[in-house]
Request: fold
Amino acid sequence: MVSPQVAERIRKPHWSLARTWLLQPGVPDSCEAFDDAASGSADAVVLDIEDGLPDFQKAAGRHAVAEWLTAGGRAWVRINTAGTPIWSADLDALAGVPGLVGVMLAKTESVDDIAETTTRLPAGTPVVALIESALGIESALAIARGPGCGRIAFGVGDFRRDTGMSDDPAVLAYPRARMVIASRAAGLPAPIDGPTLRSASNHLARDTAVAKSAGMTGRLCLDAAHAETINTLLSPSPLEIDEARRTLARLDAPSGPYDGSVGPTRARAEAVLDLAAKLGVD
Reply:
C-alpha cells in the first residue's frame, strides 16, 4: 500500500484539473499493480472493472478493488453501464469503501444514468460520465448539467464502433466540440479525451495535441508510460507562460490604441498563468 509519506510527495492535482486518467485493469490479486499506478505519474488512477476485465473476472475483480480501497488505497473506479445487474453489483460493492474518490460511468447516454448512479453512492461522490455513443454525444449537455456529474469523457473506441467513424481527427472534431461546448455551458471543467492505444504510441504527442487544440484538458490513458508525456503536453509550456506574461505586460502598458480584442486576449493569457500556478509548473 502507498504510504502517507509517498502519497504526500506525489502531490496530484485535484481531479477537476487532472490531465492523465490512467485506466488500470481491476484484475484480481493485483494489489502491487494498483500500488504502482497510484504512485506513478498519472494525475488520476481509475481502477477498471468494466472493459478492463473479461466477464468471468468481473466479480473477483470488483472484490479485489473494493478490498484495496478499504485497506487504504485511493482511486476512481470505472463501473459498468447504468441499469444493468452488473452495474448494481458494482455499486453495492463500492458504496461503503473509504478510498473511493469517484466513479467513471461507462456508456452514459442520459442524465438519468447519472442520477441513478449518484443515488447509490455516498453524497458528494463525483461521477465522470464516459460518453461512448451517438446518443450520448447528442445528450452531452443534459448529461453535463446533471447533478453529480463532475466531468465528461470521450470513449472514442466505442463511439467509433457505434457510428462507424474513422479515427481521423477531422472526422471526430464534431463530437469533441460538442463535449467541450457542453462542459463549458454546464460550468464543468473541460472534458477528458480518449486514449492512445499502446500499439499507436508513436502517435501519442499528435493525439494529445489534437485534444489540447479541441479545448480538452485531460486524456484517458492505457499505458502508465504515456502519463508524463500527456501531463507535459497538456500543461502550459515555458514558452506559453512567457508569452502570457509578455502579453499582460503589453496590455498593461499599451503603446497604441486597443484593437477591440483586448478582453479575450487578456483572458487567455490570464487563463494560461492561472492553470500553470494550479499545476505547479513555470
Summary: DSSP finds 13 helices and eight strands in the chain. Residues 208 and 230 are 6 Å apart (CA to CA). The chain has a mean pLDDT of 93.
